[in-house]
Amino acid sequence: MKKIINVFEVFAGVGSQLRALKNIEEELGVEIKSLGLVEWYIDAIVSYQTIHSHEEKNSYVSKEVMISELQQLTLSKDSKIPVSKNYFTKQNEEKLTKYYQYCLPFIETLKNPNSEKLYYTDINKVNVIPKDIDIFTYSFPCQDLSQQGNQLGIQEDTRSGLLLQVKRILKQNKDRLPKTLLMENVKSLTNKKFISEFEDWIKFLKELGYTSTWKVINSTDFGSAQNRERVFMVSKLNKKAYNWPVKIKHNKTLKNILDTDSEITNQVLELTSKIKRKGITEFKTTSNNITKAFIKDWSNFNSENYVYKNEGFGPTLTASGANSRLKFYFKNKDIFRYINYQEAFKYMGFTKQDANKIMKTNLVSENKIIFMAGNSISVEVLEHIFKNLICEIKKEF
What we know:
By secondary structure, the protein is of the alpha/beta class. The protein folds into two domains: 3-247 and 374-396, Rossmann fold; 260-339, DNA Methylase, subunit A, domain 2 (DNA Methylase, Chain A, domain 2), CATH 3.90.120. The protein has helices at 16-28, 42-53, 63-70, 93-111, 163-172, 195-208, 266-278, 341-347, 352-360, 366-374, 379-396; strands at residues 3-10, 30-38, 118-120, 135-138, 180-186, 210-218, 229-237, 284-285, 291-294, 306-309, 327-330, 335-338. The protein is globular, with a radius of gyration of 22 Å. The model has no long low-confidence stretch (mean pLDDT 94).
């Protein structure tokens, strides 16, 4: 009989953790079981459910009931502020029904708070987590830590300060603490400005009984074509420190991600014409195997001024800012274009089919899919981290 590995995702996003775990479950001879998640961004909920688990229920529910039950949830349409109370009253019935279907697990948790699986939209209201969690993931918001952010750190009433809610949740659930925890965030968390706050967090986890070890990992070292450095930390309850995976050699490049035969739209022609008018410097390859050129007189934001060649590795895709609008040059057609939503998902280790499923809901735009990809975690890196972690769980717990 296969060992069941129970996972609970906080700040779940589109579910890169669950995707990575599902990708390796057969190889490791385990069964991955989701015990729920915490997420309030509507587009992420729609995407998560579409990729991983959505099953439509055909029972009729009146428009009034759908609106009433959705209004009980704390949901956001921009991942920053909650929607207004009348947001759902403005939706047509077809769209409202879709939102209701995707949010049903969260509504059912409100009705049955003692269920085996628990789904929350408001982390501030999470008091109980499921029992027997093997892997608890928490990729908390990076806005107040990243170089592009406002550098406020892990403080009350900031987005990154939501980590303090994880602290509260763990303290309130000492009778059912997860066996292991996995954290992911921007590497600036380990910089001089924030390292003391990070160390305070590690100290708190130690008081609960966790042995923690962290590492800054570049996705290109574990099978990705994306140069993406992030800090990961694994914490194990009353056990020895986690052993990190060893870097691998691989052949994946941007040629495996970008579609060289994509449609040449008016937007592509316009961008190509604009860049050619401005002119670019000679393409040069960096020590990270990224080949890029500088666009002359393009923008006041330095990173916005680069265009990348469709070879080797590529830069970090972010949810916002210049790196959410990555520009590439395709020599075979002599064109410049932005990364598209399918490529953005592939760049993060998902599949083109995952992105297409989300588009087919007619609820999430192409730009929002790219935004969520930039907010996600490299699936390839997670696979390698989880392989080691699951092997240790099987041996030690």
